[in-house]
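General statements about sequence and structure are easier to judge against a single worked case. Part of our work consisted of pairing the sequence of a single chain with a tokenised description of its backbone. The amino acid sequence and the backbone structure tokens for this protein are reproduced below.

***
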Amino acid sequence: NNILAESGSSRSTASIEDQIVTATNPPQTDLERMDHTRCAALHNYLVDYRLAVEDDLDPAVNREDTFISTHGAAASGIISRLHPSVAAFLAAARTPTFPFFYFAHSFPDTAADNDLDGLFDNDLASLYSEPEDSLLRLYLPVIESGGESGGGLIYHQGRHVAAFFMHIDDMGYALPVDEHPTNWHPLETVLSNWVELIRLGKVIASPAPAGLYGSEKVGPWEWRPYGDGQVAACVAAWDRLCGDIEERQGQGTVMVDDDDDDRHDPLLTPVAPDTANIPNPSFARDFLRLARRPPRICSIAPGFSLPPADGPSFAAAQPYARLDVDDDDEAARILPSSAPAGVYTEGLARGRELDCAEEGFRLLLPFAIAARKSDGSEVDSDVVDGLYQHGYKPFGGAYHRPQRLERLLDHWAGLVRRGVWAVGRRGVEGGLDVFRHSTVDGTDYVIPPSW
């Protein structure tokens, strides 16, 4: 599919389906060099996406200005300090219009003395005992998107992996590299995640002067509360989880009614979202409208049952669907200790947060556990909603942004498939105490890093 069709542009870019990193098209495993051809193709695709959105992608115009050609003599002066594959990338990656992406402003520019020494962050390398000239700041951060001076995309040209830092304070989550290997990825993986954000409709570029739902725009770029592609992906993850539980049920001795196999009742009755005051439109409403109710499953995870289907019962289980809370009124905020255990969708913060995520969730437990976040850091001992959360985000984004519901459902499906969780007549067996195992079996209760 052409990602440009969603923007309404009259122009298009060449397909890069074979370049995007996916489960079936993984990044290179040879970390002795950058896959400069693949990375340049992804970079240039993002450059062309913005040009096409602004109706400025003219095939008759030959745009070949790259980092190396743009900076001429200054670039020639640093070639010897670059790994040959990195130099090849910079010779092929076209100079973007600012900002290059929602998180990434641009390549570093020449300093006042017309040199490019700022491409190398040797102060950072020295601070974390990395080799001289090993850390390159390939992209500067976008301040309006929550970035700060000193952040940006850092590329380790000794190990050929990259990580994005919104602030200089984030560096300790990924440096030294030896202590945080899971927070570093090949550059093509980072760029593919940015392309995926566009394809899902989470990040878009458009000529419209204002963002949807009051979202602040950064140049043409806009971070939306959610995208239609995210709803579809989350519904598909729900189907996979239900299907894996049903398959495990079929492998046991439980007798089931074959007539149930063809039932595809919705998770909620059509009037339930209105009865419960679920905002319209919203990610929660769209997901609940499209998700199916599996006929033989009552428990979807240990201690977590399906919501009631009818309007009044579902509404009774949603005491926080509508809250008028002043940002400055800390006393009015809902504290986790005052809410029952459950999987809660993220609240609507349209126009108030740069990194809002209606597709996010908080898994609230009645006890704290010694779990770890995706970035490898420990969940604070007094936090009861930190299980499965991101922490630092190596592909860009604010620390506080919650994990996506889609990833939770897929992670749970994996626990079912691998037999980590027992499945019986009513679905997944066990109570909430099963989640205490996160202290012992940590890898089963950590979602790998993603955007």
Notes: The first strand starts at residue 104 and ends at 106. The chain has two domains: 3-223, 228-445.
